[in-house]
Amino acid sequence: MSWRTNSLIVTLRSYGRKMGINRLVARLVTSQDYEDKFQDEMLVSIRKGDCVWDVGANLGLYTTQFSEIVGERGKVFAFEPSPENFDKLRGAVNKLDNVKLIPMALGSEAGSVGFQQGNDPLGATSKLVGGAGAGIEVAVKRGDDLLGDGKVEIPNVVKIDTEGFELDVIMGMGEVIASPRLRTLCIEIHFGLLAERGQPNAPAEIENLLQSAGFAISWPDSSHMMANRN
């Protein structure tokens, strides 16, 4: 476990969030482009011919970049449950032959779940909100099940940005994570949303699960985890 997922640090982050301190500190110590290091590390981890899973593809910002890097011999599977975001994603990648779009969420169990569309122009705050009947109903599948059904291929790199459902995605990918073909996972950790869902220890659980599977963990910034196979 790293210091970032230590229970005391997570508690202090939660307290700071409630008091409005975190946002103030972030403005003082981080630049507007604080995600740049994470983005650079993620993109450099991808190789020509790779298979990449973009879990929480949103409008396709990273999907299109992944497509360019993997080239003609590679493949990108882009998962996006929001009907509104998915339409825009489809428009962004409709000329990219190496991208396959999958209109569903990944999770720990197959079924359906409520989805809330974000109000921001980019749809970036869209998120799953719980059981069926809450918000728009969207389909959820386990990554391992899609793999078993032949709908996807084992990835070399996985990017996960699922607004508080990071652990759920990981829990449904046991076979994928165990595969030696998977080199890297790039995960945005939403500490606040995980705490709201009653999963304040999820960041530590994710670290432990991935370390047990042979991955080394690093944090390019306070909200992004990189897991690289040793």
Task: Quickly list its features.
single chain; 230 residues; alpha/beta; Rossmann fold; 7-stranded mixed β-sheet; 23% strand; globular
Description:
There is one protein chain. Helix 4 (61-70) links the parallel strand 1 and strand 2 (75-79). This protein has one domain (34-107, 139-229): Vaccinia Virus protein VP39 (Rossmann fold, 3-Layer(aba) Sandwich). The chain is α/β, with parallel strands linked by helices and 230 residues long. The protein has 10 helices and 11 strands. Strands 3-2-1-8-9-11-10 form a 7-stranded mixed β-sheet, sandwiched between helices.
Q: State the share of residues found in helices, binned by percent.
A: 25-40%
CATH level-four homologous superfamily name: Vaccinia Virus protein VP39
Structural class, from helix and strand content? alpha/beta
Any idea of the CATH class?
Alpha Beta
Sequence of secondary-structure elements? HHHEHEHEEEEEHEHHEHHEE
Q: What is the beta-strand fraction?
A: 15-25%
Brief sketch in words of this structure:
This protein is α/β, with parallel strands linked by helices and 230 residues long. It has a single domain, classed as Vaccinia Virus protein VP39 (Rossmann fold, 3-Layer(aba) Sandwich). The protein is built from ten helices and eleven strands.
